[in-house]
Every structure is written in structure tokens, then in C-alpha cells.
Amino acid sequence: MLTELPQHMQDYLTKEDVPWLSIEEINARFPHITAKEITPVAKHVKPMLSLENMFDLNDLVKFISQIRKKLDLTEETPIEFCIEPKLDGLALSLTYENGKLIEASTRGDGQTGEDVLPMVKHMKSIPQVINFTGSKLVVRGEVFLKRDDFREINAKRLAANLVLYKTPRNTAVGLLKSKQPTEDTEKLSFFAYSVVEMDTAGMTLQTQFESLSFLEKIGLPVNPQRVIRTDKDCLKGIDEIQQLRPNLPYGIDGAVLKVNNFEFQKRLGESSTSPYWARAWKFPSAVGYTYLEDVIWSVGRLGAVTPVAKLTPVTIDGITIEKATLHNLDFIRHLRLQKNSYVTVERAGDVIPSIVGRAFDTRENPVYEEILPPTQCPSCQRELKVESKALWCSGGYECPDQAIQSLAYFCSKDCLDIPFMGIEAVKLFYSLGWIKTIDSVFTLLQRRKEISQLPRWSVKKTSKLLDGILAKTKESHDMVRIVMGLGIPMVGRRTASLICQSFTQSGWESLIHCLEHPETLAVGPMTQSAIRVFWSSLENREMVKRLSHFLPLIRDSSNLGSTNTGGLPTSSKVCMSGIIKGLTRDEAKKLVERHGHTVVDNVTKSISTLVIGEKPSEKKLSQARKFNIPIVEWNTYCNKLQ
Ligand SMILES: [Zn+2]
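A: This is the predicted complex of the input protein with zinc ion.
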């Protein structure tokens, strides 16, 4: 079960919409893992609160008038605010004793955080020793990743054929919460922004601004960008921070306003979740204006030909944008885009920028040009077809761009996961004519000498590549992934799952039967016809046949994702024993758990069933008999699950 957490972490780092799990969520989802097993926890001396957001002027006016009322100040009395950039990272609490770092924890639920001291000790930006002689100091700040460091980490991942991280923030969270420090951990940056507790005789801090200077003086990194403004000039201060945004080496998503006077802060107090003396002003997502110079039509793995806008380079939020996705023809028509249009480009987070619309063009007599969809494939010059509002090239492996994309996908983490077979390596071997269809990846095994003589391919690297390829021929592979990797137009994960679910028995024979008879599949007529076209080609049939020799072991996991509980109670505790044919223990466990049941290690009175495979443990059998617990064979149990 513990092995599921790193997978979730991988997903968190590389996919969108995958949330980071807090300790509470981990407890809820993985009840048999105690928090201690995941990561040690640390109790905060004072709750770590979050800030309430302001989005417009009304929010700001309300915030200030509430402060005035609570402090009983007249309209004439100015209120001073310390305004700081709001970093896009995660909060960290540091404790120093006699000047030495002894504790570091994340926010967690606000009361208790995760102890991340081992990772923090590897961060170059956080000093282990500070120039502070008092007995205890607790400070808080933000951990983040600078853009250049983020790019560097991703460049390394690209070279190693690993899935790229999505955003600097996700990466920072992942690095800080990982189990083992890496050289990337060193790259994490930190800015301290508040003093929470200070044990020292005589010395007191009066204001937020003063405390930032103090933190700086004792050797902690502090964001140099900060301003003091009275309530009347607040907006100006926020604007000053926003102006800095494009030129900062890290991402910020707003400004933080704190009442500067600590005495005032104390009187204003806080709710259970946020202080009454501070607010975050959120900036809108970053936009830029530029010209749409041209449209490039690119061919995807499954033959879809999609438009990409080539833009006059424009800098948005510190990053130069030269391309933006145009999705499809409808999108272009809907926004009435033409070549040479002046357009608004939006960049939210680190996703591919997109064109939001046309902007007002102030040039005199600009000349626009209609964007016409190509009639021929830009890669193989085949006639294109229009289907589902998209353009398609039916070239398959005969189309160079599709072949390269298919090969790269087949070797990627999403499919076979072959080390050192990133897109650059695929392009190189393809250009040399060594690989063409996915099965030909295995013929590289006969080219050891030739590969090792290529520029930038050492004997050692070649060995690692070929060892990786060889290893794949001995492993068993998830059938859904293999079906997706075949490169059948219109067959993505959903269709691949459907194909695999209709198998009467697992293995290549079933797959071939399905491809021969797409009419038996629960897929639409278009997909059926795509499969028929794919299978009508002798080359493809030969390719699948050769592939079945290279990858003899495939296993069915198409129904692992189902949540139907069928004839069993909606949730129950079961114990498993013995060897289950065709599945690892972990896979079997996951299958049961996906149906809402819990798998426990020992036979106790509270379990509903003992599920057995081959050679179950005698001890578990006798215990089950003693407690009168039903003993069910795996296959029978599975039938009930479906
Ligand atoms: Zn083509």
C-alpha cells in the first residue's frame, strides 16, 4: 500500500488536477498507514493561518474600514501597511535554538505540519546557523523555485526521458516533501517573512517592516521587494509590486498587505483560519499583446493535424512566448483570427499559453490574411480528411511525424518506459532508418556498436539503453498501455480500455481477434472504421505480430478502474492469502480496493472474507475457520466483484 504514495506523488508533479494529499487526506484514503509512517509531524507554536483574498477595490475598501472600526481610528488617522509580493510557493516554519536550525515544518492543517527538516538541511538558501544569540527564534516564510531552476530541472528530465514537471510550485512542493534529497533539493529558494516567536531579553520588534530588516540582519534571506504605504496609497503600492512581476526571477500571484504596527495587529486579532490584519491581493493571470505571424500545422501521434500560432515574441510574466495553441479550426473561426492579427495572449501558471482574443489594432491599414486549413499533410503530403471538426492524416507509420510521435510515445513513461529513448533519440534513430514502427525499437538490440559510435552516445549510455530495451522483453505489460501504444488513430485510453474489457481471454490472441472484428466492440462507428483501416494494412498486421514476439507477456488491468461492487456489501474488510495467477499481490489488492473494500494483513473477527489463491497460509486458513469467516477462492471472489 505504501507503494501507492510515490505514484500519487508522480501524478501530482506531472499531471494537472491531481491534488497534493494532506496528512488528513492520506489518513482517510490509506487508513492503515499511520501519519508517522508517511512523514513525521511537528506541532506549530502558533497556528499557521492562511490569508483571505481580495480581488477588487471593494474588497480593499471593506478591509480598511473594518480595521478602522476595530481599532476605533478616525478617518484622518493613516494606517500603515507593509506590502510584499505574494510568492507562488508553500509556507515553511523554521525554528532556531541558540542560532542553530533545529526544526522545519510545512503548514499542514495549520496546527500541525509535516516535519521536513531533512530536506531543508539540503537547501542552500536556508542557513543552518544564524547570527542570533537568543535562545529561541521561530520564523515563517515561503519555499519556492526560481524559473531558471525549474527550467533546468525539466531540461534534465527531458534528457532522461522523464515526464516533465508542470509548474515551479508543484515541483517545489514535491521536492520539499520527498523522502530523499536530490541535487534538485539544493535549488529550492526561501524568503522569510515573519517572526513568530523570539526568546531574547530586552529586544522587541515594533513593526512588520522592522522585523523584515531584523531577519535580514541575522542572515536569513528576505525578499528585497517590499514597500510601506498608508491606506490612501495602498493601491499604488500594490501596483508597484505588480509592475515588478515580469522582471522577477520567480513567480508571484499577488501582493500581501499587512498592518505594519504589531500593536495594531495584536488588537485586531485573528479568526480560526486567517488574521484580521492581513489580506492577499490576487493579480489577474498574466496577459500580453502581440501579432499572430503565422499558423503552423502540426501532426500528432494519432494523425490529428492541429494549428499552432507562431507569435511575434512577447514577454509575459518574465517568460518569452513565441507559440500558442489554437486548438482547432472552430477556435480560429470563433475568435475571427487572421494572420497578422493583433492578439491578447494569456499565460496562466505554466501551461501552454493560449490566445484569448483579438486586441484593438492601432496600426494604420494593417493587412490581414485568411487562415486556411491545409489540404495536404505537412509531413507526408497525403490528402487530409475532416472528421469531428478536426483534420486527420491517415498516413499512420508512413507519415514521418506520426511515426516519430508514435515511437516516442511507445518508449515514454506512459507506455513502455524505456530509459534514454526520449524524442531526440527517437528522431535520431528514425533519421538513420533504424526504427520505423514501434516493434523496430527492439531491433536496436542488434546495433550496439553503431549506436555507441554516434556522437554523444558513449558505450555506457548505449549499454543502459539496450539493457533497458532487453528488460522490457522479459517484463509483463499492461494491455491497455500496449493497445494505446499501437498508434491506432482515434484510439486513446478510453477506447483502449473498452477493447481490453471485451477480451474473452487475456493475451495477444484476444487483441488480434478484436482488431479483426471491431464491430464486436462497444465503440462508435468512426472508431470502428479507424480500427478497420489500421488492421487492413499488412504492415500494421505484421507489426502487431512481431510485437507479440518481443513482448510475450501482457496482462489485463482494464477493469482495475471500475468502482462497481456488484453482489458484495459496498465496503468490507478482507484478508488475502496465497498466490494469485496473473496478478502481483499489489495488483490484486488494488483491484479489491478500487471496489471500495479494504484489504488487511491479518485474519481477525472483523473481516468479512478470506480470499485465497494457490498455496494459502495454513495459519490464516485455520484462523478463518476458528472465527467462522467464509473462505472464498480468488476467481469466485472476483466474479462477485464484477
Ligand atoms: Zn501525414
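Residues 299, 377, 379-380, 382, 393, 395, 399, 402 surround zinc ion (CB under 6 Å). The longest strand covers residues 286-299.
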